Amino acid sequence: MYVGGLCSMAITVRICPIISSVSTRAYNLDFFYRNSIQRSTSVAYGPKLRGKVKATVNPYSFSEVAQPEVRKSLNDFFVEAGDFLSTDGGPPRWFSPLECGARAPGSPLLLYVPGIDGTGLGLIRHHRRLGEIFDIWCLHFPVSDRTPSRDIVKLIERTVRYHRFPNWPIYIVGESIGACLALDVAASNPDINLVLILANPVTRLNNFILQPLSGLLEFLPDQVPILIEENFGFKLGYPLATILETILNGADVAQIGRGIFGDFFATSANLSTLIRILPKGTLLWKLHLLKSASASLNSHMYTVKAQTLILLSGRDQWLLNKEDIERLLCTLPKCEVRKFKNNGQFLFLEDGVDLVTIIKFAYFYRRGKTLDYISDYIMPTPFEFKEFEESQKLVTAAISPAFFSTLENGTIVRSLAGIPSEGPVIYVGNHMLLGIELLQLAIHLLKEKNIMLRGLAHPMMFSKTVGSKLPDMQMFDSVRIGGAVPVSSLNFNKLLRSKAHVLLYPGGVREALHRKGEEYKLFWPQHSEFARIASKFGAKIIPFGVVGEDDLCQMVLDYNDQMKIPFIKNFIQEITQDATKLRNGEEGELGNQDLHVPGIIPKIPGRLYVHFGKPIETEGKRNELNDKEKAHDVYLQVKSEVERCMTYLKMQRESDPYRNLFPRFLYFVSHGFSSQIPTFDLYQAFESYGGEDESKTSQRGKVCYEALISLVN
Fold it and tell me: Which InterPro entries does this UniProt record tie to the protein (predicted)?
């Protein structure tokens, strides 16, 4: 009984029983996150003509003032949990929070299996955001319920099997005990398309802890506030430690009051509710339930085929078992672990944890049998973009990037005005060392033009095999939230078909990991298909050049140097073997895709310059560019334009008075750190000669400027 049993539940304004069927849920893969990008505006054109126009608003232009959405608090958790306790009883049952009702078409089903509290309200702080992209059902266990673990697994199985649909995933989110039950369901149903998100899973018990704890509970009275405070994370030490740490870091006092103090006093004020949720008998039963559930799971864990995301708290002092997590990584075929070192046992109830953002970072949101990197991608919210931008704030201030684009008439302007807003567009340019220009490109295009730059990235940023020495996936969060996709011909075609703005580096790994003295050398293949593919979709090709690496760092240990050191050579060979190798057919240096980290020494930061050339049209040229020779001519034209853009920037930066850090710092001090730093004069290509009057200098500058324009064109 999981629907009919709802008649015995106290139905309040906060929850509703589940009335759902497969026939009422439409499957639609065309949903995108557009709510914050466009708005309708009524405009009066005159006394006889009134109309409604669609005004495109860029929500990222003023991201610095973006605020996180108001979420329910820990106090709301206790208040709503108290409503369950008032007339609680009966078997476990599902409910759906009312704030989750405005979901998008085609949203997959998400089942939440609670942890030790059993209320089903563990996602209360995430209900609204999750409800936009999921159909959420939460499982509630009454305090007096003593349903065995095998029956709970059958209850979840019936729900999963009833709502299974061809190629439609079903998500199960579980905490501690709930995570163990979710894994048991996945092990019993390897044929169902499941996605598991497990917070602090407990799948193997330490009897050294369990037996004394159970024995102690037998002799304690029914009300055990001390035990709850000491074992389940609600204790004074963490709030005070966090307060002290935040004060030392100079954080806003108001933020401390709203977050830490609010949660601490909410817990203290509702301690009686907490004790009613977990009386002695219920707590003993939960430990027994955990023991039986883990035993059942361990008997057939090897049959789990579901895609799994494990969220691991660093301050989980209850039943944290690092060896157990390693065992899960080795046993589960599609498993990824993300660590939260400053969080405790009740991860989803803590400030600073947003489950939707975590799912975005991990690329775990899909609405089909497999992940579609294009149609399943969800745009970042303005606040998520703000956090991303602030993570790069120091770097941006240090290198003060200057962006230039070319208008249709060939005029070069210091803005992105020459970039078309409508896609499809392919940006083709040179790769700087370690791709240090990538994040700056993404930030400025999104902020100034509302363009999400979908980069074609190395597959190692999206998957990692067990035991691999490749970097942790969390290192690439900024790349993945920015919309990067694994480089492949299929993804390239899909992006252009969806009219996306695609970033392409023909030089690939070899160019990003170049050697000494190769700062501005292109390592492009002899032939490429991007011109022909662009004509297939009528995409514009924008060549661009980036300059400034030599002003930012000095390479001291390149690939050739590292291959002479035996233990480093072995490490490079191991990680290269673990990663997907691209360009297997290329010979010589172009085929050298060995992964390594060049040894560099930072310099006093110079400046980064980016110049976008004039767009190259391919619309209407599909038949023409099907000819390999003509497509190759366009390819060579793009390569030549990239080289010219770099030449232009290297020439012009010599006359930039703010190329060095100290003048930029003085400008920031006098004009504010949010001001745009000036750069070289576009109408004066070279410095004027002394003794000439202003009119002659201006005339000479215009002539030089026209000469540079002709060079670029």
Answer: AB_hydrolase_fold (IPR029058), DAGAT (IPR007130)
First vs last Cα of the chain: how many Å apart?
Answer: 73
- Residue 637's SS3 state is helix
Check residues 142 and 580 and name the one with the higher pLDDT: 142
Buried-exposed string 37-60: b where 16+ CB fall within 10 A, e elsewhere: eeeeeeeeeeeeeeeeeeeeebbb
Structural contact between residues 262 and 73, judged by C-beta atoms closer than 8 angstroms: yes
Q: Residue 40 pLDDT more than 70?
A: no
Residue 602 is classified by DSSP as: E
Q: What angle do CA 578, 583, 585 make, to 5 degrees?
A: 115
Q: Across the chain, which distance is largest between two alpha carbons, in Å?
A: 98
| Residues 408, 614 contacting (CB under 8 angstroms) | yes
| Helix then strand then coil, % of the chain, to nearest 5 | 45, 15, 40
The least confident of 91-100, 136-145, 190-199, 407-416 is 91-100
How does strand 93-97 pair with strand 135-140? antiparallel
Q: What is the dihedral of CA 393, 394, 399, 405, to 10 degrees?
A: 0
In the DSSP assignment, the letter for residue 227 is H
Q: Could you tell me how many residues make up the chain?
A: 713
CA 381 to CA 33: how far, in whole Å? 9
Rounded Cα gap, residues 268 and 236, in angstroms: 10
Where do the DSSP E strands lie in 1-64? 15-16, 38-44, 50-56
Q: Is 647 exposed, middle or buried (0-12, 13-18, 19+ CB in 10 A)?
A: middle
Contact 9, 16 (CB under 8 A): no
Confidence at residue 64, expressed as pLDDT on a 0 to 100 scale: 86
DSSP bridge partners of 216: none
Q: Mind listing the pLDDT tens digit for each residue in 572-622?
A: 999 988 887 777 666 666 767 889 999 999 999 999 999 999 999 999 999
Domains in the chain: ranges and CATH: 4-24+70-220+279-362 (3.40.50.1820), 382-554+604-654 (3.40.1130), 664-712 (no CATH)
- Cα dihedral value 464, 467, 470, 476, nearest 10: 40
pLDDT of residue 102: 66
Q: How confident is the model at residue 464 (pLDDT cuts 50, 70, 90)?
A: confident
pLDDT of residue 694: 41
- Cα–chain center distance at 649: 33
Tokens of 702: 């215009």
When the pLDDT of each residue in the chain is averaged and rounded to a whole number, the result is 80
- Overall average pLDDT of the 242-265 stretch: 42
Q: Are strands 15-16 and 93-97 parallel, antiparallel or unpaired?
A: antiparallel
Which pLDDT does position 287 carry in this prediction? 83
Evaluated on CA atoms 347, 349, 351, 355, the torsion sign reads positive
Per-residue pLDDT band for 673 (boundaries 50, 70, 90) equals confident
Q: Which class for 223: exposed (0-12), middle (13-18), buried (19 or more C-beta within 10 A)?
A: middle
Token pair 């054109």 in the structure block, residue: 45
CA distances from 549 to 492, 613, 650 (A): 28, 20, 11
- d(C-alpha 64, C-alpha 59), whole Å: 11
Cβ within 8 Å of residue 615, ≥6 positions away: 406, 408, 418, 420, 425, 540, 541, 542
Look at 600 and 84; give whichever has higher pLDDT: 600
